[in-house]
Amino acid sequence: MDIVLLIAGFLFIILGIIGSFLPILPGPITSWIGLLLLHLTKAVPQNWTFLGITLGIAVLIWIIDYFIPAMGTKKFGGSKFGVIGSMLGLIVGIVFLGPLGIIIGPFLGAFLGELLKDSKNTNKAFKAAIGSFIGFLTSTLIKFIATLVFAGFFFSIFWKYKNYFL
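Below the sequence we write its predicted structure tokens.
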């Protein structure tokens, strides 16, 4: 059973890293599940303090992930139209453009959202789109770093107790 939990935990770590780029899958929380599965093996002592702290970090990142792109859009002069356009653009971009849509979608969505509000001010719409893009990149980077740290924890803990899995 420990090997099954180890493999499942590893898969959750990988899915978490992938999820740091896909908005559908909460990357840090998914990676945290991998850490939890590792701690549920008989080989690794359960460290609930460690799991609690890492869960808190994962949930915090998951919550702020929804605010960072909107903050970027607002910081660069965007309105609610730009923020909503950015979110819709992300979804439409992923559906029609795949991974490239993750980058292009929010940018175009914020731009078109601002143009819907004020079709004469393309300069402001472009600035809001840039803000949305920067916010999205910032959010993605934070999630990616967190999932890599969780992966590092996973492999470090596994390495420490690897003899118990053999």
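The mean pLDDT is 89.
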